[in-house]
Amino acid sequence: MDIKHMRYFVAIVKYGSMTGASNHLYISQPTISKAIQDIETELGMSLFDRTKKKIALTDAGSVFFDQCEEILRLHSELPNDLKNMIGMRQGHIKIGLPPIMDAGKLMAIIKDFHDLYPKITFQLIESGSRTIESRLIQNEIDIGITVLPTESDRFDNFNFISESLCLVVHENHQLAPSPSVNLEELKYESFIMFNEDFYLNEIITSACKNAGFIPAIISKTSQWNFIEEMIERELGVCIMPESVAKLLKSSSVTVKIEEPVLKWRLGVIWNKDKYINFITEEWLKFFQQHYS
């Protein structure tokens, strides 16, 4: 088999049919069908369960699909890796990051790295932690920034930011003058929360349950600026990282949470057992050295 055969096979799986793969690759369906037959003959096993109406992989097919994706990725990155190894230093890095963070520290590191390697470009993709981890596993991004610890042992990581979570209320709120609050004092408040894609949601909900109540949620969102607007209109209260709270409008007041003290850690994560291209590896080294 050759690299084209692997590309045909992966396209069938991704697009759900030989017809879909044919349309995407601009290759005739008989050509793709013959390639799959050749692969199965060479391997001596079936890759598709043909008793199902829809495309379904056999166990062997699932293993072969994972290997094909990795081989195709390595094949596509080989030219850039070779160029980078001889000093040309060019490429593209895709970073997944949560929208609920003060991006200033990250931008400073990106700027310094770009000064050293001006031919390297960046794509920043905002998502919740769960989506970031999923995209990393699927090789849709190179690096993720997410809440630690992760729920998967498939990633390596290092700590990026550690900070406390605080209460944010409107300046007219009865708790605004308080230097600090206990979490149980928020039992009857309306909460503005992040959506379920964010581990921060779990941290807050779990802490509230431990304090003896389930938070009454008036709204959920993935954007901290939407939360800012809702607090501005006195629709509820929110718990968020201190660094993000400092970016909010002057009508918002930050109150320390003393009991229990809520913390969160953001970390840089990447796939543990998969090949990392030369540029991404250089970026990780630079990031860790720069930030430490």
TrEMBL record:
<feature type="domain" description="HTH lysR-type">
    <location>
        <begin position="1"/>
        <end position="58"/>
    </location>
</feature>
<keyword id="KW-0238">DNA-binding</keyword>
<keyword id="KW-0804">Transcription</keyword>
<keyword id="KW-0805">Transcription regulation</keyword>
<dbReference type="InterPro" id="IPR050950">
    <property type="entry name" value="HTH-type_LysR_regulators"/>
</dbReference>
<dbReference type="InterPro" id="IPR036390">
    <property type="entry name" value="WH_DNA-bd_sf"/>
</dbReference>
<protein>
    <submittedName>
        <fullName>LysR family transcriptional regulator</fullName>
    </submittedName>
</protein>
<dbReference type="InterPro" id="IPR000847">
    <property type="entry name" value="LysR_HTH_N"/>
</dbReference>
<dbReference type="InterPro" id="IPR036388">
    <property type="entry name" value="WH-like_DNA-bd_sf"/>
</dbReference>
<dbReference type="Pfam" id="PF00126">
    <property type="entry name" value="HTH_1"/>
</dbReference>
<dbReference type="InterPro" id="IPR005119">
    <property type="entry name" value="LysR_subst-bd"/>
</dbReference>
<dbReference type="Pfam" id="PF03466">
    <property type="entry name" value="LysR_substrate"/>
</dbReference>
<comment type="similarity">
    <text>Belongs to the LysR transcriptional regulatory family.</text>
</comment>
